[in-house]
Amino acid sequence: MIGTAAVRALFSRSGGIGRAFSNRNFRIWTTGNVFSLIGTWIQRVAVGWLTWELTKSGAWLGLMASAEFLPSIFAGPLGGAVADRVDKINLTRICQILLGIQAFVLGGLTLADSITPEILFLLTLVFGIVTAFNQPSRLSLIAVLVRREDISAAVAINSIMWNGARFVGPAIAGGLIVWVGVGWTFMVKAATILIFLFSISLLRLPPVPSKQSTVSMWREITEGFAYVFRHPAIGPLLLVLVAGSVFARPFAELLPGFADAVFGHGADGLAILTSATGLGAMIGGIWLGQRGRLGGQTGISITSTLLLSLGLLGFCATDVFWIGAASLVVAGFGMVVHGVTTQSLIQHACDPAMLGRTLSIYGLSFRAGPALGAIVMGAASDFVGLRAPVAVGAVLCIAVWAWAITRRESLAGMLEATEKEG
Predict the structure, then answer these.
(1) How far is CA 25 from CA 33, 128, 178, in A?
(2) Which residue in 33, 21, 40 sits closest to 198, CA to CA?
(3) Within 10 Å of residue 355's Cβ, how many Cβ atoms?
(4) Distance between CA 10 and CA 320 in Å, rounded?
(5) How far is the C-alpha of 151 from the C-alpha of 418, rounded, in Å?
(6) pLDDT value at position 115?
(7) Is 64's pLDDT higher than 80?
(8) What burial class does residue 319 get, using C-beta atoms within 10 Å of its C-beta: 0-12 exposed, 13-18 middle, 19+ buried?
């Protein structure tokens, strides 16, 4: 039987990704998490398609996106403060159980033909609240599951999983919708959560004592925002992330409309477009994971915003389905590289005592931004079509890139100093 030291040595010869997988707990977490993430993408595609079937409205697609993402505005910061106080594994376990119940109820109502747009909105809102509350603890767990020098690779692996799930999940969802109906997709999501809960039970982590705080939860939340806004590098970094989230990322929530109304494809077309985005994102995650180092990530983060925008402009400019899909591969690559590098830089540069709260603001930017953008773009699409709002958002994102690229060197000096000093 291969010992722990031998396994670690074997993985350590495989680049940044291999070094991250040499951590036992991270291997177990990743195995269960990949099933959960595939289930999440199955559910997201199914919710989008079900919304389009029930309403045929871009505005409703935007509203459904807001139900999933806007809870980050209030639940995310609260979840960050809680993550800095309590056991992150137990918090994750409770949230996964709640998400499993939500998926089961949604599947049951859909199979019973009792679902309406309003009920779907409320259940998606529950999903958004629980996910936003749990996200800071899940993100900050990386620092517990791996050694500090493996954080960048581990963050990239998390992104590979998320976007690999974006590639695989929609394909599964498309098949399930066509062959057995949309209701069963939600039941599959519930089943994947059970697998994740089992993997969590196998982790061996040292007990983490609850943080004793002499200040209120609200005070800790405000301290987190103050820390981010005053930080000379994390603040601007998150500003670029917000711009990409509001102006560029909402395209994903409008893909059901693009698949049907623009390209003339059904659920299979939606699955292909979503998977194309996931393929590009997965390539980006693998590249960053194998790169396995922090140096240069500030410039990569800023440049990836431009790549995302150019991919979206190409997507909006074509009537050919496969050219549109290829453009989304480029957009997906830029989107994930931007998100992963931003999170990696934050993980390294942030004060450990503020990590949960800072990552909650990262999650707030990454999740609430697309919801706000999707509401505006979805409403506008009912009047000017789906292409124009996405194209305008891409142009605005390019303007933010032009501002950020002039500050690249000074930001890199602060964000990447942690690695040089360590």
Answers:
(1) 12, 27, 38
(2) 33
(3) 21
(4) 46
(5) 12
(6) 92
(7) yes
(8) exposed
Distance in Å from the first CA to the final CA of the chain: 35
Q: Is the backbone of residue 3 left (phi > 0), alpha (psi -120 to 50) or beta?
A: beta
Who's near 313: CB < 8 A, 6+ residues apart? Answer: 391, 394, 395
CA distance 99 to 189: 9
- Please report, as a single letter, which amino acid is at residue 158: N
> What pLDDT was estimated at residue 207?
61
pLDDT at 209 over 70: no
Instruction: State how far the Cα of 103 lies from the Cα of 135, in Å rounded to an integer.
Output: 18
Query: Phi-psi category of 385—alpha, beta or left, where left has phi over 0 and alpha has psi -120 to 50?
Result: left
Give the integer Cα–Cα distance in Å for 156 and 161: 9
> In whole angstroms, how far apart are CA 218 and each of 82, 86, 92, 184?
11, 16, 22, 41
Radius of gyration of the chain (CA): 20
CA dihedral 69, 31, 136, 7 (to 10 degrees): -150
3-state secondary structure 132-170: HHHHHHHHHCHHHHCCHHHHHHHHHHHHHHHHHHHHHHH
Q: How confident is the model over 55-71, as a mean pLDDT?
A: 81
Q: What is the pTM of this model?
A: 0.66
pLDDT of residue 331: 93
Give pLDDT tens digits for 95-131: 999 999 999 999 999 999 999 999 999 999 999 888 8
**Using CA atoms, how far apart are residues 160 and 151, in angstroms rounded to an integer?**
14
Could you give the domains of the chain?
A: 14-203+213-421 (1.20.1250.20)
How many residues would you count in the chain? 422
SS3 90: helix
- State how far the Cα of 399 lies from the Cα of 303, in Å rounded to an integer: 12
Q: Say if residues 22 and 149 touch (Cβ distance below 8 Å).
A: no
